[in-house]
């Protein structure tokens, strides 16, 4: 399928410029972004490097702006390139969705899944393996991020669906632009250094430093809310890139951390930290309202088979 995208730009001199781009050009641009260079992008696309270089140069000339910084061994996006990438991703994803909707006979195409890191680690291995086995014609693109950025990406059409959790001050029922399927109930536990005395409330903590992900993480927000519930000072947050880093900081006695028990079960060694149950949180499979492709429906069925909410499981709104 070929789609021509016409962009009209009115300059100060009232000169009108028309820029024509097809999906192939946008795909070349995205490949160069992902591979950070022409050579690897050309290999991925099955094109000659000279062809890829020419496409990018023509695109920059038509747009009238530089999209890439050319370094010695790689290419990185300029500020304008980052803005253009956002639109290119949405256009390509929407075109792929349209193709799938017009031919719903069986799952095919690309399915872009976003998920919290904890869900990938503890819940998705089995469903993803089954999906790949049953539907080999579907290309899965899996990205990991906190719930806030995932929901932003979902609404911006950069991804097709997301496994997310909501903080206590957000009611999932109010997300009218999304369809939500509750899938997993996670027990959040407070992790303390092994020599820390038993804790009944946040006021019993000797440490006020919290190892957590960057803002936008639902579990971080819930952790901060719980720590403030006793009226104490706001915790000092030590931002870390992974649950293993959280666990390590806590085991070393530098911080406390809060994470799902299902993730703690993947860590070790036993006894390196002390656990205290805190609260339960539901993980939802979210998609845009009305999103309906064969690939997504097949994935939803696959992941729903792994739910631990058998008694509570409902249907998507």
TrEMBL record:
Pfam families associated with the record: HTH_1 (PF00126), LysR_substrate (PF03466)
Domain HTH lysR-type: 21-78
GO MF term set: DNA-binding transcription factor activity; transcription cis-regulatory region binding
Domain of life: Bacteria
Keywords in alphabetical order: DNA-binding, Transcription, Transcription regulation
InterPro entries cross-referenced by the UniProt entry: LysR_HTH_N, LysR_subst-bd, WH-like_DNA-bd_sf, WH_DNA-bd_sf
Entry similarity comment: Belongs to the LysR transcriptional regulatory family.
UniProt name for this protein: Transcriptional regulator, LysR family
Native organism: Salipiger mucosus DSM 16094
Biological classification of the source: Bacteria, Pseudomonadati, Pseudomonadota, Alphaproteobacteria, Rhodobacterales
């Amino acid at each position: 399928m070929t789609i021509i995208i016409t962009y009209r730009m009115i300059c100060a001199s009232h000169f009108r410029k028309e820029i024509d781009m097809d999906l192939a050009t946008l795909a070349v641009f995205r490949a160069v972004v992902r591979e950070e260079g022409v050579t690897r992008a050309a290999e991925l696309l099955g094109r000659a490097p000279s062809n890829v270089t020419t496409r990018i140069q023509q695109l920059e000339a038509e747009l009238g702006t530089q999209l890439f910084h050319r370094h010695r061994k790689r290419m990185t996006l300029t500020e304008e390139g980052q803005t253009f990438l956002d639109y290119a991703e949405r256009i390509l994803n929407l075109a792929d969705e349209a193709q799938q909707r017009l031919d719903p006979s069986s799952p095919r195409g690309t399915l872009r899944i976003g998920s919290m890191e904890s869900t990938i680690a503890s819940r998705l291995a089995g469903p993803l393996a089954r999906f790949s086995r049953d539907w080999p014609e579907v290309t899965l693109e899996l990205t990991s991020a906190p719930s806030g950025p995932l929901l932003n990406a979902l609404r911006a059409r950069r991804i097709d669906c997301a496994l997310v959790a909501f903080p206590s001050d957000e009611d999932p029922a109010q997300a009218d632009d999304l369809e939500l399927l509750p899938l997993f109930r996670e027990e959040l536990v407070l992790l303390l250094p092994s020599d820390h005395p038993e804790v009944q409330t946040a006021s019993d903590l000797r440490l006020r430093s919290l190892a957590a992900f960057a803002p936008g993480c639902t579990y971080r927000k819930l952790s901060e809310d719980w720590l403030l519930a006793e009226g104490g000072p706001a915790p000092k947050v030590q931002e870390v890139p992974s649950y293993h880093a959280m666990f390590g900081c806590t085991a070393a006695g530098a911080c406390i951390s809060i994470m799902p028990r299902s993730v703690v079960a993947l860590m070790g060694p036993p006894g390196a930290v002390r656990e205290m149950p805190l609260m339960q949180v539901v993980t939802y499979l979210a998609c845009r309202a009305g999103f309906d492709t064969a690939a997504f429906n097949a994935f939803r069925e696959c992941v729903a088979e792994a739910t631990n909410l058998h008694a509570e499981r409902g249907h998507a709104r």
